């Protein structure tokens, strides 16, 4: 009876002893030919059937030598990248630097998850949860945000609602704060996923506040937001018959990576107060600041112009590298808004065991302050430097950034023309080279040629990204087109404008072009 009955669709059972089969499945098994499922560097050679598995040897390179098949010239970049590129030479799939996920600290999270306090099978965790979030979880979130956001007053758990991700928070706020057809102000470029979430539930339309890479006399850096730009966008919307009900701000910014200074935050809040607008502050990258630029949370401001209309968001996806956990947090002092949100939260609640595990993370201040956050900041900075230096070596400048998991890079000189059609064509060519990065059109940027690249990934992936960029951009059939657009991030083209003052090549919701671009 060692074999299943014929025709039942089962594989024959092996005659190998169970102990040997179990040992062979273990990742660390020492049996000759054992294969670790996490490491692809042991392969069966052609014609080696019956002789076991042997390690695939990586070819070492002489200093300065290019790996086989590498395009472009040699030089400092090639010398630095040689070792890393060789190690990931076996990887032939798509290198995804388009999805904003922090993959740098899983080793720390994995170790923390093995501690005894994570093991909990209390019955109440497996029963219907409080749709607002477990009281114990909200208490720890309140303490955590009070400390790390440097809140002026201690946050109270009754003002917190926990949902399955910040996208769910955006969606519920859209239907609670606004009516279908209303608009919300949002500086562009911005995280493109907001638009679909706000439309899905609330039927809202974005009112973009266009930001330009051109630095005027009144500005200090490219893509700078000002209260004057907010005012101009609001007045344009009124002329178009759009009732604006809210202002959405992402700080640190996605995709720019810059941080709003405290003075600008106050000016934006004053502007919203004058026009009776709700302010949705998305600070999901609050603790992903990797340089010495001071970060100011809206929770840390001494006094808010309109406390009832200011709503704060944060989550575990970015700062903790747990995008698959799906936990977002809303903090609002508006009782009526929270009451309405809690009614919708029944569709977006988080599992009890997940809330328990995250509670243990938040409680362990010693681990957070001495292990996780310092290590995360160090690794983010190292990875950002690696990508920025690699891009500079192949002639791609980036906007100065301080937070987030990405850089905003200037590819304009590689476009055949300064249009979004040319940008999408370049994006497709990169994808054909098995490199996925996010084009500016996906972020509703008003200037073609900007791309977002995520650096919070392995060193090998960053090396391979630079190699594939170099091969594609500097190939004979893809030479840069000479035009009047500067290649530096501190300059910009000025697209022609129509009668409404909006650039004529403004990115639209072109589903046929954007359907394959997924941005998070």
Which terms would index this structure?
520 residues, 33% helix, disordered N terminus, 14 helices, seven-stranded mixed β-sheet, single chain, alpha/beta, globular
Task: List strands and helices in order, with pairings.
Blueprint: H1 18-25, E1 42-43, E2 54-55, H2 76-87, E3 95-96, H3 106-113, H4 135-148, E4 160-163, H5 166-177, E5 183-188, H6 193-202, E6 205-210, H7 227-239, E7 244-250, H8 262-274, E8 278-282, E9 310-315, E10 328-332, H9 335-344, H10 352-363, H11 365-393, E11 406-410, H12 420-432, E12 435-436, E13 438-439, E14 450-454, H13 459-473, H14 511-514
Helix pairs in contact: 2-13, 4-10, 5-6, 5-9, 11-13
Q: What is the number of E strands?
A: 14
Rg, please?
Answer: 26 Å
The N- to C-terminal Cα distance equals 52 Å
Low-pLDDT stretches are: 1-16, 20-80, 480-516
Fraction of residues in β-strands: 5-15%
Number of helices: 14
H/E element order: HEEHEHHEHEHEHEHEEEHHHEHEEEHH
User: How confident is the prediction overall: mean pLDDT?
Assistant: 82
User: Could you say which overall geometry the principal axes of the C-alpha atoms support?
Assistant: globular
Please outline the major beta sheet: 7 strands, mixed
What spatial order of strands do you see in the largest sheet? 4-10-9-8-7-5-6
Structural class: alpha/beta
Q: How helical, in percent, are the residues?
A: 25-40%
């Amino acid at each position: 009876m060692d074999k299943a009955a014929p025709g039942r669709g089962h594989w024959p059972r092996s005659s190998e002893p169970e102990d040997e089969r179990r040992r062979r499945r273990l990742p660390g098994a020492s049996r000759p030919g054992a294969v670790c499922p996490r490491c692809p560097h042991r392969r069966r050679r052609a014609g080696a059937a019956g002789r076991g598995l042997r390690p695939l040897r990586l070819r070492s390179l002489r200093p300065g030598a290019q790996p086989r098949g590498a395009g472009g010239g040699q030089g400092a970049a090639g010398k630095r990248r040689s070792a890393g590129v060789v190690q990931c030479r076996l990887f032939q799939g798509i290198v995804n630097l388009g999805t904003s996920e922090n993959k740098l600290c899983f080793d720390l999270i994995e170790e923390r998850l093995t501690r005894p306090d994570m093991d909990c099978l209390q019955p109440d965790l497996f029963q219907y949860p409080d749709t607002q979030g477990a009281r114990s979880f909200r208490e720890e979130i309140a303490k955590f945000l009070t400390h790390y956001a440097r809140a002026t007053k201690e946050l109270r758990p009754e003002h917190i609602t926990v949902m399955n991700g910040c996208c769910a928070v955006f969606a519920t706020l859209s239907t609670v704060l606004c009516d279908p057809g209303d608009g919300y102000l949002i500086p562009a470029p911005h995280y493109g996923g907001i638009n679909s979430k706000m439309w899905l539930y609330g039927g809202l339309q974005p009112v973009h506040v266009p930001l330009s890479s051109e630095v005027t006399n009144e500005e200090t850096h490219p893509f700078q937001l000002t209260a004057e730009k907010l005012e101009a966008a609001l007045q344009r919307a009124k002329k178009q018959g759009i009732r604006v009900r809210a202002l959405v701000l992402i700080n640190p910014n996605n995709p720019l990576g810059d941080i709003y200074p405290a003075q600008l935050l106050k000016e934006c809040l004053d502007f919203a107060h004058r026009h009776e607008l709700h302010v949705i502050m998305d600070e999901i990258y609050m603790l992903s600041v990797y340089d010495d630029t001071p970060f100011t949370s809206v929770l840390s401001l001494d006094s808010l112009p309109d406390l009832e209309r200011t709503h704060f968001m944060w989550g575990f996806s970015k700062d903790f590298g747990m995008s698959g956990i799906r936990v977002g947090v809303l903090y609002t002092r508006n009782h009526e808004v929270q009451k309405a949100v809690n009614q919708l939260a029944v569709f977006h609640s988080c599992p009890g065991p997940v809330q328990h595990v995250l509670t243990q993370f938040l409680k362990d201040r010693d681990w957070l302050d001495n292990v996780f956050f310092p290590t995360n900041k160090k690794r983010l900075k190292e990875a950002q430097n690696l990508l920025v230096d690699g891009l500079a070596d192949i002639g791609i400048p980036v906007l100065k950034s301080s937070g987030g998991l990405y850089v905003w890079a200037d590819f304009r000189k590689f476009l055949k023309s300064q249009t979004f059609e040319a940008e999408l064509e370049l994006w497709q060519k990169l994808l054909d080279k098995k490199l996925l990065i996010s084009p500016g059109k996906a972020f509703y940027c008003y200037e073609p040629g900007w791309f977002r690249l995520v650096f919070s990934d392995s060193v090998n992936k960053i090396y391979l990204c630079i190699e594939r960029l170099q091969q594609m951009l500097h190939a004979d059939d893809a030479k840069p087109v000479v035009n009047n657009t500067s290649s530096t991030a501190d300059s910009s083209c000025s697209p022609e404008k129509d009668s409404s003052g909006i650039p004529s090549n403004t990115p639209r919701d072109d589903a046929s072009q954007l359907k394959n671009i997924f941005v998070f």
